[in-house]
Design brief:
It is built from eight helices and no strands. Helix 2 packs across helix 6 and helix 6 packs across helix 8.
């Protein structure tokens, strides 16, 4: 049991999972919806505006998450998230690559493919269900309820960003959320007394 907890999830596995999400998104798009998808995926604000708003919202989130962690570090839910995502291989630039892959793959599937079919709310329920393993929702309790509602709220926010600003904005904000979270988790793991010497390599 202990060796399973310490086993790291490789970057390759993460990237393959995100590639699978992209393939699934394309399959959903071509099998279940007949609209001209390329124009729809590029809809919203002009691309430069989408990038600008995505970067600005992402930067605000990054600043807020760093300050917020200081006040929530000792909460059980926060410690569980650190433990869950600490299973990823967070060495070097891996947090960035993982975040880019997840931001692109998940948003393409959930906001690009599923949301036009199911709407923001049902898509967000599926988004929560897709993250049950990552957050280790193995039983229903207060922690699971609070974290589920948090993930649901984030998904709804991504949904509204994709609808009213554009899919690129949602992708950029998603990447920023994941990057800031993974770098905070890496910093916490490296600061712990039992952190391995290779954690920052």
């Amino acid at each position: 049991m202990q060796t399973e907890t310490l086993k790291k999830i490789s970057l390759t596995r993460q990237l393959l999972t995100c590639a699978l999400l992209c393939i699934l998104a394309v399959a959903v798009i071509f099998l279940f919806d007949r609209r001209p998808y390329i124009p729809w995926l590029l809809a919203g604000l002009p691309l430069l505006y989408q990038i600008f708003f995505g970067v600005m919202i992402g930067a605000l989130y990054w600043a807020g998450s760093g300050m917020g962690y200081k006040y929530m570090a000792k909460r059980q839910g926060t410690q569980n998230v650190v433990e869950s995502y600490g299973r990823l291989d967070l060495r070097g630039w891996n947090p960035l690559w993982i975040s880019l892959a997840a931001g692109f793959g998940e948003e393409l599937l959930f906001r690009g493919a599923l949301q036009p079919l199911l709407g923001i709310w049902l898509t967000s329920v599926l988004f929560v269900l897709a993250h049950t393993r990552a957050y280790r929702f193995n039983k229903f309790n207060k922690r699971v309820l609070v974290q589920s509602l948090g993930i649901f709220g984030v998904s709804v926010a991504f949904g509204f960003l994709a609808t009213y600003a554009g899919l690129a904005t949602a992708m950029i904000v998603h990447v920023a959320v994941d990057v800031s979270g993974l770098y905070i988790i890496r910093r916490v793991i490296n600061a712990s007394p039992e952190a391995p010497a290779t954690a920052t390599a």
